[in-house]
Design a protein that fits this description.
By secondary structure, the chain is mainly α. The chain is built from three helices and no strands.
Length: 86
Amino acid sequence: MTSTCVIQESIIDWLQQRPAAIVSERPLPDEDIYRAGWVDSFGLIELIGYLEASFAVSFADSDFGLADFRTVGGLARLIQRHQANV
């Protein structure tokens, strides 16, 4: 299972490489990445693809409604839960 820190850093790196990234800032682990403008609806689809490919997980439809899906820290926890269930 991948550590929380490694997952978070990977997500943050991905967010910061996006064209819409807020260059002068870094997303916080518990910051709402949608409300803060780090991703939009198109970015969400790209993020899902990136996370599933990078961490060998598959998200269920029910995952997308979870509060964990809105933050870097929450996504890391969600990925760890999926990896633990494999």
